[in-house]
Write a sequence for this structure.
């Protein structure tokens, strides 16, 4: 991913500036509509290669949009003047796998050996679904998407391993088929669903009890449709317990200057 | 569809010649592999426009590959020297909606006011599924595909109306998702599924009792996946009861010179 920032640059810059100044500290859903938003993972350099190999081997849950130079807080390929230390509304700081802080910026814990990974986020394909007239339940209900740990193992790479985490959107069957078509066009933001219809087959015993996010109702005339989820790397990190790690706080993403429509391969 | 016949012409010509001479009278599945096979409907000219409008309005079940000139038994756009009166292994002749004969050729009932319609067939996309490593159950079991009348109404056009008929293939969820991707590339042979997972939602009370074809088992770890079916025009014809009509006999299709791969839009 080295797409060039385009006319949507302005909205992205405006929102990041607001966030950088501390004027906005909430979830980024709905900000700079049309712009790609990204999950953020920041790791010490000595773990970066294994993590990138893990992402490369598991592109459905971990589609990498950009990797920073070690020690550099910038993602020049994702947008103008992005500073990953200040431009997200809230962060999570982890030490030995334990969440130790949720600060508004991470300048004071920044180190010269850190490498940032921007990972694709389902906001991009949800925008395409909504544009096609398909109801996305958690958007309609204004809550967080339900997410589940599955029995689908990720491919192990170096020290990183763990289960695939999936997000779930209930849909009528004809909408589910259309959603496969639409999201297949977006391989860099999780792509097509990985499963639908039979949650127990992927190790989800109770659809009403997500492991992350909020439960949403599934109608008798609907199927649960599951996509690989960007929380998967966090599950792997929780398992590896690196001495130091920074991630975005849930729902508080990096707003880039890329357009979602530019991610479509067809 | 006006694709040019190509190298596969030879196998198509060979098989049609065998059939024309009466040397082959069985189902055409597996003949001239790679070649497009088609459903055939032949109607008097005074019904032809309504039927073509019906097909145009219902492209998922009735994808038209070619329409002949009135009185001409040829489909030049589908292949070399095709004669629709002799080149299918077996026909069905209908009078006032009643099946009156199943002859090996229809030269003796041919009329100068007849118009032939070649309609896309699921054999084309099944070939693509099998090539991708997806099991197609009725092929594996060497029986006919199960087909069902649904509660999905076709769009009415002139005198023609009726329910959509669907074919069903059981698949594991991940294969069903892959099958949506593969068959979406083939809109001229039914395209993507119209439904999956909840047969009762489209008026199918018992999946083990198809209205046409043979029942196939659906595993507990599988979903029934439904495609619009080329039997739909026959269901409409049964309802309209035209004074005269000829169709192919089930499974005994018109073998063309077109290549299935050429039908892929992507």
């Amino acid at each position: 991913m080295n797409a060039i920032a385009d006319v949507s640059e302005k909205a992205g810059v405006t929102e990041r500036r607001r966030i950088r100044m501390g004027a906005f500290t909430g979830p980024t859903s709905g900000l700079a509509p049309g712009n790609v938003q990204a999950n953020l993972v920041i790791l010490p350099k000595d773990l970066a290669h294994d993590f990138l190999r893990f992402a490369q081997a598991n592109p459905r849950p971990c589609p990498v949009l950009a990797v920073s130079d070690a020690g550099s807080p910038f993602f020049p390929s994702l947008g103008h003047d992005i500073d990953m230390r200040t431009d997200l509304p809230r962060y999570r700081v982890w030490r030995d796998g334990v969440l130790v802080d949720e600060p508004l910026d991470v300048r004071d814990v920044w180190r010269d050996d850190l490498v940032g990974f921007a990972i694709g986020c389902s906001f991009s394909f949800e925008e395409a679904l909504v544009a096609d007239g398909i109801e996305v339940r958690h958007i309609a209900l204004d809550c967080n998407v339900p997410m589940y740990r599955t029995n689908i193992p990720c491919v192990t790479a170096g020290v990183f391993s763990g289960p695939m985490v999936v997000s779930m959107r209930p849909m009528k069957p004809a909408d589910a088929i259309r959603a496969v078509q639409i999201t297949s066009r977006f391989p860099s933001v999780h792509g097509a669903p990985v499963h639908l219809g039979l949650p127990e087959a992927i190790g989800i015993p109770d659809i009403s009890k997500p492991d992350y996010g909020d439960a949403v109702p599934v109608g008798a005339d609907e199927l649960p449709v599951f996509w690989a989820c960007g929380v998967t790397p966090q599950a792997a990190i929780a398992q590896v317990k690196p001495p130091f790690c920074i991630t975005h706080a849930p729902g508080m993403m990096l707003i880039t200057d890329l357009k979602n429509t530019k991610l479509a391969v067809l």
